[in-house]
Amino acid sequence: MYTLNCKGRLWVIDRPGVMGIINATPDSFYAGSRAGNRDDLLRQAAKMISEGADMLDIGGQSTRPNAAAIGEEEELKRVIGAIADLHRHFPDTPLSIDTYYSKVAKEAVEAGASIVNDISGGGIDPEMLTVVGKLGVPYVCMHIKGTPQTMSKQASYENVTAEVLDFLIRRVDDCKKAGIKDIIIDPGLGFAKTRRHNFELLRNLAVFSILQKPILLGISRKSMIHKTLDISAEEALNGTTVLNTLGLLSGASLLRVHDPKEAKEAIKLMEAYSGSTKP
Predict the structure, then answer these.
(1) pLDDT for residue 278 is more than 70
(2) Distances from the Cα of 145 to the Cαs of 54, 157, 220, in angstroms?
(3) Which residue among 9, 256, 261, 264 is the active-site one?
(4) Cys-Cys link to 178, which of 105, 133, 240, 248 (CB 3.0-4.6 A)?
């Protein structure tokens, strides 16, 4: 069991949780996650919450391979109003800001977010860890090599599991030194990894429990699924559920998904299978 202090509200993780993905961007890889205007945003959030999302993750920048990067000012325009709207309409649902800019993280938390999800593990903006430490909110620390623009060329490892684990051990220590008390780790499937690397990390997911931190698994509709099955991202829901279930059996604490209903069903079935059914 883990506890996260989300701006004074204690979130107890005594069973796997679901993080719903909402993208305030026109170019995220899965069109179904895009919220193009305020009405779309609120409608999508309401649907996800009704389907069981425990929190919502809002991002203003596509981090798919080779996506064009935008600056922090444009990202702020995309996400701050969205987060303020979501916090006003759904005050009981924790909001996560998906960003690698410390300025965006700070202003998002001030607007209502209570978690920072950084795909770079603090590696892109050197101020990120210090800022999050001062904000006093939980931090998702993910493994990546390079940036979304360069990571495809850096998918090279002698032992991907050992190297990702070593990275996360170092970064968790850096997070603690920066004053971050609640840390969630993410091995970063799809980020500077080949399909072979992604499946190896999924097989070895239980190894990361050595860090004694909640493990976030983000594989929803990713290319490791649709390229393996020779389908599109739009057709990859069933494959997502299969791999999420394998991740749950290996200790995933949080599923980051486009489809909360199916993720929640996988959790309930996994609990029934393992004999740990919750009310």
Answers:
(1) no
(2) 29, 11, 20
(3) 256
(4) 133
pLDDT tens, 187-207? 999 999 999 999 999 999 999
Domain range summary for the chain, segments of one domain joined by +: 16-274
Catalytic residue among 78, 171, 221, 222: 222
CATH architecture of the domain covering 16-274: Alpha-Beta Barrel (3.20)
- The verdict on whether 134 is a catalytic residue reads no
**141/156 Cα distance (integer angstroms):** 21
77 part of the active site: no
